[in-house]
Predict the structure.
Amino acid sequence: MSIGIDVKGLDEVQKKLKELQEGLTLHALQHWAEEIELEAKDMAAARSTEEVKNSIHIEVVEIEPKTFQVKASAKEEAVPFIAEATRDKLNAMPVTSASIFKTFLGQVEKKLGASQRTE
């Protein structure tokens, strides 16, 4: 006796799983960090000083296997540019990359809110 099982959409599921895995690599995350950094620097160049622009640096480090941390350093005046650039890039990212950068954005916005309260 033979039983045939036809699973419709399995190719689509496999494709989505592959996309999820591809978004969660150091290389993919570092790509998005560079994209955000470049956009933030462009914004700073147009709206601020060269010193503020040059202070922006964003990188991703793998602290454990498949555990990543986004690190940013910048002058306080550059924080709004980093937040805006991150927001701009989220929709273009794979869902796994976006989830990491949403967490990063939350931290940036928290920093932004704290600096605005002290002014």
User: Anything to note?
Assistant: The mean pLDDT is 88. Helices lie at 10-22, 26-47, 50-55, 79-90, 95-117. Strands lie at 57-64, 67-73. The longest helix spans residues 95-117.
